[in-house]
Design a protein that fits this description.
Elements (H helix, E strand, L loop, with lengths): L2 H12 L1 H33 L6 E6 L12 H8 L14 E12 L5 E9 L3 H4 L4 E5 L9 E4 L14 E4 L2 E10 L9 E4 H8 L6 E5 L7 H11 L5 E5 H45 L1 H9 L4 H27 L6 E6 L4 E6 L4 H27 L3 H6 L1
Parallel strand pairs: 3-8, 5-7
Antiparallel strand pairs: 1-9, 1-10, 2-3, 2-9, 4-7, 5-8, 6-7, 11-12
Helix pairs in contact: 1-9, 2-7, 2-9, 2-10, 7-10, 9-10
């Protein structure tokens, strides 16, 4: 290791208090960034990880989501007769009408929020096989029975097996709990689509969801192309993962930029503090720097040594920030999905990409804070520095 570099690294150990304060100030700003990025990543994973690429969601052309879409009964019957749709155990097409709506429900412990209710057909359980009934049983068609997502247990008043939800002025018994492994369906309530349409006085379905036949030439893409090219439907078709990934984009991006904005403001203070610490250290080490220059080390080597010193401070601060945020990994939380205006439950996720972004951010903060001190150190005249 070059002498200037060894000197700079040893100096971090010698001035322990200044090093610790610089690392802590950078670490706190990075900790905030990790928290917000983990929030955004958890929200994205709860949606992006939902569904199967073999499932297709058919919406009205121009609709941005299920809540804006509509499909008549006649259109649905024609859609169910299209080629390329898989058949269930009973020989019927795996194609189901659905209706999605946000209803204001009382939360456990007080207050209320919008939660997603999905009216589904009996085929939906076979099509959306990423969600399964893990407790109780599916609802009986033609009744007001519901099944609730696992993430809603304890969040909505009455959302428990054997309990009842207050919907449209009457009690809807909870007969089952669905689990989609942390996906979007964990935050939904499912009921019979025909009963739901009557309660909402809706004459049309919202969307249709279908399972493409794996033996069909061209796969899901060919099935989707056939539907969109048919003028009877005036539809757009997305795979199930594509549909939910699109929902994650708006809020996920906003959360990431919010995290960078807040962390950036804190990082400015951390960078100034680190720069002042390095400048104060330089004032006490002028004679040492002059000695290095007098021994023949070039200014750029001194410059590089001080930048490495600042980089190490930033890297250590980043690692500290990640460690400070680690306890929240996996903690359950919830927020409003801006695309559906419903409560979405998910967990903080500190993934590898979150860690890489946070440490990269902290390293940049460290390097930026060291530019001025490093430049001043490299520009010291040796003869003048040795007299100080």
């Amino acid at each position: 290791m070059p002498v200037p570099l060894r000197y700079n690294l040893r100096s971090l150990l010698v001035r322990r208090s200044g090093t610790a304060l610089s690392v802590l100030s950078i670490g706190l700003s990075v900790g905030v960034l990790v928290l917000v990025l983990a929030l955004a990543r958890g929200f994205e994973l709860s949606l992006v990880g939902t569904g199967s690429p073999e499932n297709l969601v058919v919406l009205r052309r121009g609709a941005k989501g299920e809540g804006e879409s509509g499909m008549t009964r006649g259109t649905f019957r024609a859609l169910a007769a299209m080629p390329g749709i898989a058949s269930g155990a009973d020989g019927r097409p795996l194609c189901s009408p659905e209706l999605y709506a946000a209803l204001n429900l009382d939360k456990e412990g007080g207050g209320s929020a919008n939660f997603p209710l999905r009216g589904v057909g009996t085929a939906s359980f076979a099509i959306r096989d990423s969600a399964s009934v893990v407790e109780g049983r599916p609802f009986r068609p033609g009744t007001h029975e519901v099944v609730v997502g696992r993430a809603l247990l304890g969040r909505i008043a009455g959302a428990r097996l054997g309990g009842a939800l207050s919907l449209q002025g009457q009690a809807w018994p909870v007969v089952g709990v669905i689990d989609s492994g942390g996906g979007a369906y964990d935050s939904e309530i499912w009921c019979d689509v025909e009963v739901f349409m009557q309660e909402l006085d809706r004459p049309v379905y919202g969307v249709a969801v279908l399972r493409s036949d794996p033996a069909f030439p061209g796969g899901p893409a060919a099935v989707a192309q056939g539907i969109t090219a048919d003028p009877r439907f005036d539809a757009k078709v997305q795979t199930e993962p594509e549909y939910f990934a699109a929902q994650a984009g708006t809020l996920g991006g906003a959360l990431r930029w919010t995290g960078y904005f807040i962390a950036g403001i804190m990082a400015v203070g951390a960078a100034f503090g680190t720069a002042m610490t390095l400048l104060a250290s330089l004032a006490r080490r002028t004679h040492e720097v002059g000695t290095l220059l007098a021994l023949g080390f070039r200014p750029r080597e001194v410059l590089g040594g001080f930048l490495v010193e600042a980089l190490v401070l930033g890297l250590a601060g980043g690692l500290l920030g990640v460690l400070l945020a680690i306890p929240v990994n996996g903690v359950a939380t919830g927020t409003m999905n801006w695309d559906t205006f419903t409560e979405q439950a998910f967990r903080f996720r500190i993934t590898s990409d979150v860690i890489v972004r946070a440490v990269t951010f902290s390293t940049l903060v460290g390097v930026v804070s060291g530019v001025v001190p490093a430049w001043k150190a490299s520009r010291l005249p040796p003869s003048e520095a040795l007299r100080r």
